[in-house]
Amino acid sequence: MNTTMWRRVLAPAAVAVALAGAGHAWSQAITMASTTSTEQSGLFGALLPRFRQATGVAVKVVAVGTGQAIDMARRGDADVLFVHDQAAEEKFVADGWALKRYPVMYNDFVLVGPKGDPAGVRGKDIVAALKNVAAANAPFVSRGDKSGTHAAELRYWTQAGLAAAKGSGYRECGCGMGPALNIASSTNAYALADRGTWLSFRNRGDLAIVVEGDTKLFNQYGVMVVNPAKHPHVKAREAQAFVDWIVSPAGQAAIASYRIGGEQLFFPNAAR
Predict the structure, then answer these.
(1) What is the pTM of this model?
(2) In this structure, are 233 and 213 located in the same domain?
(3) CATH code where residue 201 lies
């Protein structure tokens, strides 16, 4: 691919990155701390081969909850951070662990539960739904793992005035999104999930989406290079190559093209 063609599909910064990568001037692998939702949805399986083809840089993904991913990056155990808890991400930058946060894409959270909806939560209002879950002492599976999904769920409970009284059916599994959904499926429980993981989840049993469409359920993802001034061993150039690519027209188009069953899982918004 010649230089003119590159410029048609990549942002200028990404052009330089891709050409340097093709010359094998850099280390050929970086570590990314990210969330279980980006991994379990299959998104990275679609994106990362394209990035490697463009730059020659491989990415090893460690998929954990957002809180754990941020801790991992703070320790210097990752080169790049790709998560979905904007308040925590902005604090990460403010504390000097990264120089800049880049918005990448969004989707939304959904509340899933038994199709028969015994707690009577069905609708668009997540706060009202959680009030009904608690009042009915309905089974509810929380990730309980300091992930971005868990942080969002706790916000909704707080907005419902139920931070300390979620009902006797509330349980924390301390696990990722996929395992939490498996538990919810096997026990006919309610659970908050990101839409991407839900769409890729196959062991649904009697579960279905019961609450969606509330503006509170908006779910933004961001990406950051770990500050090499904090951890000199960080592969900052290669990590920045990933950031430049994922926010470029080529990376954003790759995100938009990823679908399951014809349904788009993530919506790029780096240029917002």
Answers:
(1) 0.82
(2) no
(3) 3.40.190.10
